[in-house]
Amino acid sequence: MPGLLxxxxxxxxxxxxxxxxxxxxxxxxxxALIPVYFASLVEEGSTVVVAWGYAETIASxxxxxxxxxxxxxxxxxxxxxxxxVGTVGTGAVACAALGIPAQALPFLVVYVVAAIMLNGSxxxxxxxxxxxxxxxxxxxxxSLGYAYGYxxxxxxxxxxxxxVLFGSSFGIDMALGMKLxxxxxxxxxxxxxxxxxxxxxxxxxxxAHTHVIKQTFAGLGRTMKKIIKxxxxxxxxxxxxxxxxxxxxIIKMSTSYGTDLGIDATQLVLALLVTQFVAFPSAIAxxxxxxKFGTKRMLLVGVFAYFCITGFAAFFLRTALEFWILAICxxxxxxxxxxxSRSEFGKLIPKENANEYYGFFDIFGKYAAVMGTFxxxxxTQITGNASVGVMSIAVLFVLGFILLARxxxx
Length: 410
What we know:
Blueprint: H1 11-32, H2 34-41, H3 48-74, H4 80-97, H5 104-127, H6 129-132, H7 138-166, H8 174-191, H9 194-199, H10 212-229, H11 231-260, H12 265-293, H13 295-315, H14 320-348, H15 354-383, H16 386-391, H17 394-406
């Protein structure tokens, strides 16, 4: 696994990157196949966008409430890996269990558990970046994580897709095919978490004291004050709050939005698979460009691009061809904006408090996701037009761009 600039990656860096390969399999499945499968479980006449949007909102809200506290606990010596293992294990079990419910509501409950555990593990994983590599390599390693995550996740997804779409030739119906897809994804997720568990260790931490709970809440208070006082960090987090809203919303709602427009499910899934292949070289290119032009400048490019993508989705997306165009455009910027946001934040924070800060980072990301998915669902429900729901998030990219542009240079 080569580095972006020809440098050889360390074992810790490779192991850290491998978890992106593992968790991305569930991310891709939940973006492409799970909403389509969920649509087959809902009652006739129900709107998939509304139900799916509210489920994503609940998962994001619960996670945003929990993660700063759990992140602060994870910063204590020896805790980071325990929390990581716990969320990965629980999430993988919930992923495998998605094949059990035969009705929409129980399925959504299990999905919410799996989604919470997935995103919880990502907070601890992101915080391990400061342990796995050095600050000058943050952009490179973070970008490689997303890049290899996109391409690696295609392997279990393609296997699952073949089973679901062509399983009838082997006596496997859609229901059984999805059960196998959930199991394959869960095993892939666990398998690619093992290198990080074995090879990356918590080198930055806070020493634990007797009164752990009191210490945790005191630490949270100090962190909040530091974030408020640090203008660069404050503006970055506010900008991130707005622009990542649109990014997460487009990722989570694209398939259900396409379903409501009447686009064939096979076309939706294949287009999103193409997104993964486009995102692989694009994320790597973003890492190189960040080294050349600066992380902040490349983030501004990505935010502006997503504003244009949102307008295209709202005003022009009506057919399968247009959905393919949307998928390719998203793939060009999705990995870059996420990877550079993660690495830029890592440069701004004290390393021994990485989990605690990434917990707040997650609050801003998840509450934005709450707002985005809620706005799409609400405006779609009120107007009966999913395009209006999509357009409601465009203003957030504008706000994110303005705040990011005002952030002082380091």
